[in-house]
Amino acid sequence: MSSAVKGVALVPGAAQGFGRAISLCLAADGFDVALIDLPIKQAFLEDVKLEIVHNSVRRSAVILADVSLEKEVKDMVNEVVKQLGSLDAMVANAGVLLPTPLATLIESELHRRLPQYLDISIADLDAILAVNVRGLFLYQYAAIQIIGAGGSSARRHWRAYPLGRAPACTRHQSSPCVG
């Protein structure tokens, strides 16, 4: 566990799955973590927050927001700064998947069962695009405005690494948290 605070990281979709794991990893690596998810997942977020505070002695904030809604995203980013003092990193994690995960099928089975995966409603498609495309753009844009305004030359050496859901789903791999 790192004793020095490396900054504040924003993690959308932090209530469970990749987001939860990434949040715990970032806290163990020295970040204070803003845990973001939908209001219906507040209890899960509170559990992640307790685990962060107990295991890594880091600060954590639970912020409820729908990343597909511009006003909620702007309010979310401002709330991160209000509660944790800054915003230094964000993780591209929030996402909606198809009702049945394509990634779980082997190629031969995929060809046999492909028609059932094409049976997706327009409402499902709209929800997927609202979060995975629009939401991703909105929260990255809002976070960059805050991170860029900091102008910290101490972080110029930082690099991006594929820690979010998209790299894991598209390449079937996920990079570990590295210091």
TrEMBL record:
Pfam families: adh_short
InterPro entries assigned to the protein according to its UniProt record, in alphabetical order: NAD(P)-bd_dom_sf (IPR036291), SDR_fam (IPR002347)
PANTHER family: SHORT-CHAIN DEHYDROGENASE REDUCTASE, SHORT-CHAIN DEHYDROGENASE_REDUCTASE FAMILY PROTEIN
Record protein name field: NAD(P)-binding protein
Lineage: Eukaryota, Fungi, Dikarya, Basidiomycota, Agaricomycotina
